[in-house]
Amino acid sequence: MNAETKTQTGFYEQIVGGGGFLGILGLGFMVISITYDVILRYFFAAPTNWALEINTFLLVFLCVVPAADVLKAGVQIRVTFLTDRLRARTRDRLEILRAIAGFLFCAVMAWKGAVMALHAWQHNDRMSTSLGTPMAIPYLFLPIGFALLGIQYLTFLKGKKKKPEETGGRFTGEPEAEIGPQI
Q1: pLDDT digits over 70-121, tens only?
Q2: 182 located within any domain
């Protein structure tokens, strides 16, 4: 592997890892803000006017932006009782097909999400709440998250082209270790 390819792969891994880190921060903020809102609501009868809206958007954020990091680590939910019965060569081909289909789906979702965010920006769409959040902000989570996920699928496909000996016995983009039993 030449230096330029290593730099690109490292850059993509940092971006994908950054999405995972932002997911950790978002989840932490959700825990704190919901706890804060519950305390204010039930002990002081003074709920916040922002916690529900912000946390709704953060839930969308958590569904898409850290997904690439989850895929990279291999800790997504996988049902493998059928694929475990296949020969290794067939399983590898199925993994490549899955990655291609995943990339194509991500490309369409990123494109359509970007169009939706652009239209919301052009028409100045806002939530009809006290915060009046511009809808372009939560809509941007879709193209960002699916672009990251698509990059991870491409990294996986690129790693499948290399011999496993070049990558320490595993394909690039493949989980570093099996984590727990899979169904």
Answers
A1: 888 888 887 878 888 888 888 888 889 999 999 999 999 999 999 999 999 9
A2: no
The domain in which residue 72 lies consists of 3-167
173 assigned to some structural domain: no
The answer to whether 143 touches 117, Cβ cutoff 8 Å, is yes
Q: State the DSSP code for 126.
A: B
Q: Is residue 31 part of a domain?
A: yes
How many whole angstroms separate alpha carbon 53 and alpha carbon 162? 46
Question: Which secondary structure element, helix H or strand E, spans residue 11, and what is its range?
Answer: helix 3-44
Which residues, 6+ apart, have CB-to-CB distance to 125 below 8 Å? Answer: 119, 134, 135, 136
Helix (H) and strand (E) counts in the chain? 5, 0
Query: How many separate domains does the chain show?
Result: 1
Statement: the pTM of the whole predicted model exceeds 0.85: no
Report the C-alpha gap between 182 and 48 in whole angstroms. 41
Please tell me the distance from the alpha carbon of residue 137 to that of residue 57, in angstroms, as a whole number: 9
Provide the greatest CA pair distance for the chain: 63
Tell me which amino acid residue 41 is: R
Whether residue 142 contacts residue 13, with contact meaning beta carbons closer than 8 Å, is answered with no
Cα separation, 84 vs 88, in Å, equals 9
Cβ–Cβ under 8 Å, residues 150 and 110: yes
